[in-house]
Amino acid sequence: MASNGKVITCRAAVAYGPGQPLVVEQVQVDPPQKMEVRIKILFTSICHTDLSAWKGESEAQRAYPRILGHEASGVVESVGEGVIDMKEGDQVVPIFNGECGDCIYCKSSKKTNLCGKFRVNPFKSVMNSDGKVRFRNKDGIPIYHFLNTSTFSDYTVVDSACLVKIDPHAPLDKMTLLSCGVSTGLGAAWNTADVQTGETVAVFGLGAVGLAVVEGARTRGASKIIGVDINPEKRIKGKRFRKNHKCEAIGITDFINPKEIDVPVHEKIREMTEGGVHYSFECAGNMEVLREAFLCTHDGWGMAIVLGIHPTPTLLSLHPMELFDGRRIVASVFGDFKGKSQLPLFAKQCMAGVVKLDEFITHRLPFEKINEAFQLLLDGKSLRCLLHL
Question: Is 219 among the residues known to form the active site?
């Protein structure tokens, strides 16, 4: 391409301060350095992590100016020195939790999906190779990176470890969801919990990640999938994942609104499931909800999986002796998927219809209306609003 090795001037949505409307303006994007890739973003979407960062809810998210965004899909524009697994024109999905393939973490097989160099790090705001940024605004002011990706831009530069090459025939709009939300939720059901046919599940928080857990449990044949949310509209969204009225595990089978019952949620769930569910998934980022998720699992074998982001310094109220009842509590990063190794196969499974992605895209808007997309998520009206660039 004529732009290879040159600075590209393009649009980006820049965050200049917490809670301030994003400014869609011209920025300069440097060419990729060693082991980096510059990509043309075609689709990007917004998740609650972007929303939390935009609000500046933790110290890690207060680097400004900054280009947010971490769910996207696009094509390779150019590659830096040493990149051999991708070339210009390849369809790709950026991932916030990278995989270098060489460190002791990446070589750990099934022990972890973290990477020693490129794991998710909210404090990181520059590139790995030289500790510098690849973005500047029209005044030459450096613009910081976000979660290894910064996808709210026509073009972005990422480390090759944070980019996955996918099937050239894959529908890129839907593949955007694999960058975070769907992979995180569904992977937690498939990989972290390894839900089996006939087992029971409770999902706390029915946003995109929560409903991805529901979809993962559905595909594994869970006998009961209990959705928990204080928004009554989420009952309808959860039921959309049901095909028919047969007694098979399609979507949520039961819904609980904590505001509509007069007992703690965990007591209600234990009553519904003969002592508790096999697995619970906390997708709300709320400490009280997390405790309910832990207590609603069955003693002896129950497992609570943490997916929600908890930006506050508040600690979990948990007595060590409660763990002697056999319940466990773990966290799942990116659904325990190893991004570069396992996402290409997952993308093909989605293309084959194993996983239903259409239901997650509730809105579509042009990129310049990104602030409207943020408001839709803030108001709880969207799961994923897909922005096309």
Answer: no
Structure-block tokens of residue 49: 């992590």
Least confident of 60-64, 294-298, 362-366: 60-64
DSSP three-state, residue 225: strand
pLDDT tens profile 283-326? 998 999 999 999 999 999 999 999 988 877 788 888 899 999 99
Is 106 catalytic? The answer is yes
Residue 10 annotated among the catalytic residues of the structure: no
Q: Which residue is catalytic, options 103, 112, 240, 364?
A: 103
For residue 278, indicate whether it is catalytic.
no
Rounded to whole angstroms, the Cα distance separating 370 from 375 reads: 9
Q: Which amino acid is at 114?
A: L
Other Cβ atoms less than 10 A from the Cβ of 105: the count is 18
Name the residue type at position 364.
R
Q: Tell me, yes or no, if 49 is annotated catalytic.
A: yes
Q: Which residues contact 366 (CB under 8 A, 6 or more apart)?
A: 387, 388
Please tell me the chain's helix, strand, coil percentages from 3-state DSSP, rounded to the nearest 5: 30, 25, 45
For residue 51, which of 25, 69, 66 has the smallest C-alpha distance? 69
CA 100 to chain centre: 19
Choosing from 44, 66, 99, 115, the catalytic residue is: 115
Which residues on adjacent β-strands are paired with residue 169?
A: none
CA distance 258 to 255: 10
Domains annotated on the chain, with CATH: 8-179+357-388 (3.90.180.10), 185-332 (3.40.50.720)
Task: Determine what percent of the chain is predicted with pLDDT higher than 90.
Answer: 81
Q: Which two tokens stand for residue 283?
A: 């997708």
Task: Identify whether the C-beta of residue 63 lies closer than 8 Å to the C-beta of residue 154.
Answer: no
Q: Give the model's confidence band at 243: pLDDT under 50 very low, under 70 low, under 90 confident, else very high.
A: very low
The predicted pLDDT at position 110 comes to 81
